[in-house]
Write a structure and sequence with these properties.
Number of helices: 14
Number of strands: 2
Strand content: under 5%
Shape: globular
Distance between the termini: 77 Å
Radius of gyration: 26 Å
Order of helices and strands: HHHEHHHHHHEHHHHH
Strand order of the largest sheet: 1-2
Largest sheet: 2 strands, antiparallel
Length: 343
Amino acid sequence: MSRFTRHWAPVVTGVTLALVSPAQAGAQSKYPGVGRPATPAEIRAWDIDVRPDFKGLPAGSGSVEKGQGIWEAKCASCHGVFGESNEVFTPLIGGTNAADIKAGRVKSLTSPDTARTTMMKLSSVSTLWDYVNRAMPWNAPKSLSTEEVYSVVAYMLNLADIVPADFVLSNGNIGDVQKRLPNRDGMARDHGLWEIRGKPDVANIACMKDCPTEARIASTLPEYARDTHGDLALQNRTVGAGSAVAPAPVKAAPAVATVRADPAELAKRKGCLACHGVDRKIVGPAFREVAVRYKGRPEAAAQLVQKVKKGSSGAWGPIPMPPHPDLGEEDAATLVRWALGII
């Protein structure tokens, strides 16, 4: 051992540990050689949750008016213009009234025959804000800006008559809005899921003996209901660059060649398969249905490219297709040619 190592190693080690948080140092010593501490940037990317006390809520604001425009472009195709549609998901809005807002409990929830909407069950505005922020829109999660999230949430609150049409929701007034939520006092808190010192949510006696050795299927999905919304595996969404379902990068082609995107992969990457199946209708028509309808019409390709980019409604039912302004002309044409060729 050299004199430097003998005299300065303890000092260098001490400085190094001082730069690592206690949690990180503990994790490294507990699992040596496994992984590495997360960087501050990585922690910030995942640390986006908003608590019921609004800790974690970013500063910002958004108006009902702007939220309506965003909603019609990115949300109405699945949830309806007024959040009332159950074509794809359970309705978001409905079932609440002024008496519920005053009482803080949605009375109709006590009836076992009442269909539940999101706004009937919602007990904290933070839950709504957090979910929209991290998971919406369906085909492009985490793509909304902070202002857009505030605006969409403000529009939903207006649809439920919680805030007026000229309201601007912000991190400064969201606490006051919470006081008008129809079911703000409807959540049970005397259990272990909410308070670790509360009573557990089950009362069974722990048992680890005489366990059954064979599983028995108690219920199954009816045959007619299977795959009614297409192949769910094809509807997985990419979330971030490191997602396991993200498409593989395209290798660079020689300079003399033109790289053309694989249409099926392009449809998956652009989120088309979230609403359209190849052979089955999901939200919109199946690509095969489109091909059959427009067969033998040479002008159809150009028309459909514009519909894909600018959006359309009425051609295939009441649910509109939102515009896709970020989709390039060449990609749109590739997708249309592919769809028209599926017969």
